[in-house]
Amino acid sequence: MGSVSLKIGDGTARFRRATLWSSAVNLLMLFSVIATNLFALYAFTYSSPKPHLLHDSHKNISLISEQVSLILREIDSSQKRLAQMEKEILGFESIDLSRPNIAHELKIFLQNHPLPLGKDSRSGITEMVASVGHSCEKSVDLLSQYMSYKVNGPCPDDWSLAQKLILRGCEPLPRRRCFAKAIPKVGLYSFPISLWKNVSDKVLSWSGLGCKNLECLNGKKLNKDCVGCFDLANGYENQRYVKARRKNDFLIDDVLALGSGGIRIGFDLGGGSGTFAAIMAERNVTVVTVTLNMDAPFSDFIATRGLFPLYLSLDHRFPFYDNVFDLVRASSGLDVGGRPEKLEFLMFDIDRILRASGLFWLDNYYCVSDEKKRVLTRLIERFGYKKLKWVVGEKVNESGKSEVYLSAVLQKPVRV
């Protein structure tokens, strides 16, 4: 699904609203139980004069029947109200196309389109449905702005807007019918020379970024995993994973030696400028690097090195089949922010794409607090991974404060 240290804005809100939803359910259920008992008590304690006992019995039965019908109607009405509340709270309601300022292209895209040859014999579908996540409803004004473009014309230069939508959970993006800006890729190096040769600034896309050249980027600390990570010639990049600076730094060759049955393909979460994938490529291992262009042209830069960038947020389900990767590496990009449930969702997807006996490499994960370390440790133990390497160490940051980091190599168990 770069860092990829992401905090998806609507994720936390959804959990808070889920609590409101649970409270509403409890109150309505309590009301139904109380009403049911009151009606039953009234019906069965009602007494009438003995001379008219038979007649009054029929009246009581009729009254009970009416009250039961009333209760059933009330329950049905409550269920409908609860369903509507669920749609409004969780955002499952369709985008209202009657709203003002909705882009015409967005209206066309969201309509179901019949298949040109009718019903598909294999799948049984008769029409194509738009693939837009329900979180887009919460950012419909930005989405409509993003979809205001000229069909068959050049796409607007607005990747900062597109990325803002992605970070709010609105993906996949629906823009389809315009031509992306074509940047001439002149001066690219052949593989494997391309792995360690800086390219010209002109072949990279600087849309929506503060820096407009590599020199500017190399003077910044973009994130914990990218300090000078665009300087391939003079920086530390070619020493990473080959020489250890701290006890938390594992060497690639040592990790590869732990792989059962060989490591051939890997998946890197938060891979910076692609250096991990580059060193693995020198060892004949293909690595897919998840990236976003957070303050730098990560995707473009990784591609110019002859490597595979995957532009995806970590809130998205990984677009791979089950049990396909031999190794998954994650660093501070595993810190998705927000509540523990988001980390749990991410860990389950990592487990899904990692093959049995495959390796999960947790590389210098920043434990911002003891609680965060305990949450991650308990989560790992739930999966039953075997701890091949496990090191907790401290590092003093620029302000003189001690920071705790966890590095581990874990082996996925064979589950029956």
Automatic annotation (TrEMBL):
<dbReference type="GO" id="GO:0016020">
    <property type="term" value="C:membrane"/>
</dbReference>
<keyword id="KW-0489">Methyltransferase</keyword>
<dbReference type="InterPro" id="IPR053223">
    <property type="entry name" value="Prob_Methyltransferase"/>
</dbReference>
<keyword id="KW-0325">Glycoprotein</keyword>
<dbReference type="InterPro" id="IPR004159">
    <property type="entry name" value="Put_SAM_MeTrfase"/>
</dbReference>
<dbReference type="Pfam" id="PF03141">
    <property type="entry name" value="Methyltransf_29"/>
</dbReference>
<keyword id="KW-0812">Transmembrane</keyword>
<comment type="similarity">
    <text>Belongs to the methyltransferase superfamily.</text>
</comment>
<dbReference type="InterPro" id="IPR029063">
    <property type="entry name" value="SAM-dependent_MTases_sf"/>
</dbReference>
<feature type="transmembrane region" description="Helical">
    <location>
        <begin position="20"/>
        <end position="44"/>
    </location>
</feature>
<dbReference type="GO" id="GO:0012505">
    <property type="term" value="C:endomembrane system"/>
</dbReference>
<keyword id="KW-1133">Transmembrane helix</keyword>
<keyword id="KW-0735">Signal-anchor</keyword>
<protein>
    <submittedName>
        <fullName>Methyltransferase PMT25</fullName>
    </submittedName>
</protein>
<keyword id="KW-0472">Membrane</keyword>
<keyword id="KW-0808">Transferase</keyword>
<dbReference type="GO" id="GO:0032259">
    <property type="term" value="P:methylation"/>
</dbReference>
<dbReference type="GO" id="GO:0008168">
    <property type="term" value="F:methyltransferase activity"/>
</dbReference>
